[in-house]
Design a protein that fits this description.
Number of strands: 4
Helix content: 40-55%
Shape: globular
Order of helices and strands: HEEHEEHHHHHHH
Strand order of the largest sheet: 1-2
Strand content: 5-15%
Distance between the termini: 143 Å
């Protein structure tokens, strides 16, 4: 009876913890046809540029291993919890990893200032909770600042992708933009799409053919001894070049 109550209490405790924990940033759970619960990687929201999709995947993967890379008795934790056990240095390393691996990477997606402030606030709460002995480490494992920041980034990019698809549909139907200019400056639909197009245009390479070193790929006629070191043009001698007889007669007239 006692063991049954302990199991029921532990299940209730784990269930209550799940209400305060953010979802896994990398995986989502679903029920298959047999009724078994399985997990799969989260799909990238449609309408995003290749740059934003790459940033989101990187942030989700890093947040997963920092917050939920391990599981013991149903309680998932990551490297932030393990590093945070070390007094003093662990808390500093935890805050550093949270910023450089998640927040700094997320800022490459041209996020608005208010969203970056929210991410920094989550990191500050995580850092302050880590200063409390024992209880702070438990709060740190439950709060999971990196997973929250990854969820914020995913939701914002989802809105950006949806607005970009709506903008394309409006342009195809000849309608005006439904989003206001202020909202467009915040969301920036289509951000990162023109990264590839903004590159420099390819320059044409000028190919020089030397008489002394002919190319192997092209059959170049070897020059005669009189053609070495000068340009040669094919001209019709009868049409353009004066004959030797005409030259001699002209010289003879001048002498007379």
């Amino acid at each position: 009876m006692t063991s049954y109550l302990e199991k029921a209490g532990r299940r209730l405790f784990e269930k209550n913890l799940e209400q305060y924990q953010p979802e896994d940033p990398l995986y989502e759970f679903y029920t298959d046809k047999r009724g078994k619960q399985r997990r799969r990687k989260r799909a990238i929201p449609p309408g995003l540029s290749a740059r934003d999709a790459k940033i989101l995947k990187s942030v989700q993967r890093r947040a997963h291993y920092l917050d939920k890379g391990f599981s013991i008795c149903g309680l998932r934790f990551g490297w932030t919890f393990i590093i945070g056990i070390i007094p003093g240095a662990g808390d500093v390393a935890d805050v550093t990893l949270n910023y450089f691996l998640v927040v700094r990477k997320a800022r490459e997606a041209e996020l608005p200032a208010w969203l970056v402030r929210q991410m920094l606030l989550n990191n500050a709460i995580s850092a302050l909770s880590g200063l409390v002995p024992v209880a702070g480490d438990i709060i740190l494992a439950v709060f999971k600042a990196n997973s929250r920041n990854a969820a914020l980034l995913e939701e914002f990019l989802r809105i950006r992708g949806e607005e970009f698809l709506k903008l394309q549909a409006d342009e195809a139907q000849g309608r005006g933009q439904s989003m206001t200019k202020k909202d467009s400056q915040q969301v920036k639909p289509g951000a990162g799409m023109s990264d590839n197009a903004a590159g420099p245009a390819p320059q044409r390479k000028t190919k020089f053919v030397s008489w002394s070193r002919p190319s192997r790929k092209e059959n170049v006629r070897p020059p005669t001894p009189g053609e070495m070191g000068r340009f040669v043009e094919d001209v019709e001698l009868g049409a353009t070049a004066p004959s030797r007889e005409a030259n001699s007669s002209t010289i003879g007239v001048q002498r007379r």
